[in-house]
Amino acid sequence: MAAKKAAAKKAPAAKKAPAAKKRAPNASFMKEMTPSAALAEIVGAKPLPRTEVVKKLWAYIKKNNLQDAKNKRQINADDKLKPIFGGKKNVTMFEMTSLVNKQLS
Predict the structure, then answer these.
(1) Is 87 helix (H, G, I), strand (E, B) or coil?
(2) Mean pLDDT in runs of 10 for the chain (105 residues)?
(3) Is 104 helix (H, G, I), strand (E, B) or coil?
(4) Using H for helix, E for strand and C for coil, what is the string for 31-77?
(5) Structural domains for the chain
(6) What is the pLDDT of residue 33?
(7) CB half-sphere exposure, 67, CA atoms < 13 A
(8) pTM of the model
(9) Smaller CB count within 10 Å for the chain: N or C?
């Protein structure tokens, strides 16, 4: 009977998952880029990484309520955004990133 109790106490040790490695940021995203004159009106003229440009652009969109009410993926352009969006009245959020990249050098 003592053998059964000893066997019951020895439960297999729980396997620990290997520690997840912290993902290093992609260097091309972190490279500071100079915005065009049209984009500089929104995000500022000093060089910024692409990630910061997109953050500031989203802050502007949310502040000015430019996201479409029914389709949140659609961005409605105001007078400042139209030159950035190539004159389009509205674009999807996925189009927006490629159009913004064309405004960076």
Answers:
(1) coil
(2) 59 62 72 93 94 94 94 94 93 92 91
(3) strand
(4) CEECECHHHHHHHCCCCEEHHHHHHHHHHHHHHCCCECCCCCCEEEC
(5) 30-102 (1.10.245.10)
(6) 92
(7) 13
(8) 0.71
(9) N
